[in-house]
Amino acid sequence: MDSDEDTRMSDTEPAMTSSKGKGKAVDLPAPDSDALPWVEKYRPVTLDDVVSHKDITSTIERFIAKNRLPHLLFYGPPGTGKTSTILAVARLIYGSDYKKQILELNASDDRGIDVVREQIKQFAETRTLFSKGFKLIILDEADMMTQAAQAALRRVIEQYTKNVRFCIICNYVNKITPAIQSRCTRFRFSPLPILEVEKRVNSVVEAENVPLTTDGKNALLKLSKGDMRRALNVLQACHAAYDIIGETEIYNCTGNPHPSDIETIVNSMLSDEFTASYQMILKMKTEHGLALQDLLTGAYDYVDTIELKPHARIYLLDHLASTEHRLSTGGSEKIQLTALLAAFKTAVELSAKD
């Protein structure tokens, strides 16, 4: 009886331990690179692959060559290569096994004062054999950390400088306390030049055989605004949804109003009678699913191409800004639309006066 029970238990034990494990699935196939999002599939591997920012990458390479890498603070808009740069630095220092030498915490992780005092401190205290002198802690989207956590972090940065280098990544540097800023070497990642985004988009289009038209590419580059992540995500979404990707497909996929719709709306506000223009805009908003916020952004760009007298242009731009602010604080779209329409009518009258 006992021997049978032992046999049954020994049969079930491996299954139980493998199912518990560390929360990881067992015997899953390796992820196919074709199934990866293009943002990850074409993420730079080396510092030479990082688009633009050659001044930053060359400076960091010199730090590494002299073994004098300081604590780093990367800041700038999203999609400009901050995380890609530090991961390329980790590969350069530690080789292909770099993940064992770094601790990466994102805004999605709990990064309160307890994590700084326990997890980061514990990682910083331990030194691994055969490492190249220090480990790397990457705090991504650090501007989301609480002030208390940042206060605790500044002491940890000083205390474990022998073992660890910190790389703090954020979008808004003013949300990082001055005490932490002063302990780091700051690098600003500006929005990527359109030509650099175009080069990478062209290489992805060629590698993936994407049927992208010239006007579609121009629309994609315009909407990306120097954000490589946005450009590649929109391109992949459009490739999945459409056989041929033109300007209309790009605008449909992103939900942005088409320039021709903006032109129609602005011209109507300038020339049509108030009620007729208001009804036409409401109809277009309903049919095309347009938000007033997006119409404001498009109208701002289009107003640059219209001939208006300086004082009329100033008046109109001021009201565009006021309308956007009131929308952001929860203003009614219908009321703000009528206010915007009134501002355009007043601008026309101001422009007509001598």
UniProtKB/TrEMBL annotation:
Region (Disordered): 1-29
UniProt GO cellular component terms: Ctf18 RFC-like complex; DNA replication factor C complex; Elg1 RFC-like complex; Rad17 RFC-like complex
SUPFAM superfamilies with a match to the protein in the record: P-loop containing nucleoside triphosphate hydrolases, post-AAA+ oligomerization domain-like
A biological-process GO annotation: DNA strand elongation involved in DNA replication
Superkingdom of origin organism: Eukaryota
Any one GO molecular-function label of the UniProt entry: DNA binding
Coiled coil segments of this chain: none
Biased composition (Basic and acidic residues): 1-11
Compartments where found: Nucleus
Gene3D superfamilies in the record: 1.10.8.60, 1.20.272.10, P-loop containing nucleotide triphosphate hydrolases (3.40.50.300)
Keywords linked to the UniProt accession: ATP-binding, DNA replication, Nucleotide-binding, Nucleus
A Pfam family matched in the record: Rep_fac_C
Family the UniProt entry places it in: Belongs to the activator 1 small subunits family.
Full protein name: Replication factor C subunit 3
